[in-house]
Amino acid sequence: MSELSQLSPQPLWDIFAKICSIPHPSYHEEQLAEYIVGWAKEKGFHVERDQVGNILIRKPATAGMENRKPVVLQAHLDMVPQKNNDTVHDFTKDPIQPYIDGEWVKARGTTLGADNGIGMASALAVLADENVVHGPLEVLLTMTEEAGMDGAFGLQGNWLQADILINTDSEEEGEIYMGCAGGIDFTSNLHLDREAVPAGFETFKLTLKGLKGGHSGGEIHVGLGNANKLLVRFLAGHAEELDLRLIDFNGGTLRNAIPREAFATIAVAADKVDVLKSLVNTYQEILKNELAEKEKNLALLLDSVANDKAALIAKSRDTFIRLLNATPNGVIRNSDVAKGVVETSLNVGVVTMTDNNVEIHCLIRSLIDSGKDYVVSMLDSLGKLAGAKTEAKGA
């Protein structure tokens, strides 16, 4: 029996525990979807799936409530798969391990998936509870929300009978949400040229780790550190001074997650090693001072490593560093209509470098179309200045 069974209302938490036990990261929701379809059929509910995999469950009205307006409860099936650096976990195979910590339900070493697992559990618990009096009821569970809202975009017209929809993918109890931020995935792809690392250079792995990370929608305004931006800031300040050779740079795992770790493989001449170590120590203290209240576990590590790869030529190094360093991150604008609400934001989520190119993956969110268009235009201009290919997808 799950530890969550001691919580009330027990049926809801039992369903949530079951959801946690079935892997369901974005693009891997099918096992959970099949379980829910079987669950609904076992309880005698009408259940359908559409061409993109969305699930629709219908339950007739309680006797005497047939003339009430139909309502649809909506949630999404997938979760954001993030784990601590020291956690071994395959999100496509391993269950989430929830536990109770005081007044909070958490997961051991990974994201919990309460976004949107607790929403799913709530909707299914309402369906299952014969004591809940309701009109005609529908539950809609959509696919791949976290990675692009594929299920929502693929939804068929006239599939739903209800004209009132309650979305359960919210953050704060007791608050009503007035709208939804649209999202744009923006990618800059920059070609790189390389050359051999000079003789007499020593190679190091520079790692920024220990950041909290977080959801790029719900926590973008909190002021958490972005590992990609913090690490490139060091390179921007010291690459030319050190005649630093950049061999590799990678950071983040998902566009919609604030990156908690990034690393760069670098090389400097032997007579610059002590200077490099001093600059790294100084920069770590600067970051700890700047982020003292937000990122108490921040660490900047410099480790000697073996290397057989070529380094970027100076032009490629400088172009990449300047492009990433100049890319905005965080809140772009707050709403004038709803005080305290972020209107437009940008998360520099993933940087992936290979031998001959580097991709910078960002997620733009805005409550208004013009806000998204503005940030797309800004990133496109930066990319073109750097000679990068750019692509924007989403709505």
From TrEMBL:
The Peptidase M20 dimerisation domain, residue ranges: 207-294
One Pfam family cited in the UniProt record for this chain: Peptidase_M20
EC number: 3.4.13.18
GO CC terms, sorted: cytosol
Biological processes per GO annotation: proteolysis
Enzyme class, first EC level, given as a word: hydrolase
Classification via InterPro entries: Peptidase_M20, Peptidase_M20_dimer, Peptidase_M20C
Gene3D superfamilies per UniProt: Zn peptidases
Protein name from the UniProt record: Cytosol non-specific dipeptidase
Species in which this protein is naturally found: Escherichia coli
Lineage: Bacteria, Pseudomonadati, Pseudomonadota, Gammaproteobacteria, Enterobacterales
Name of the gene encoding the protein in the UniProt record: pepD
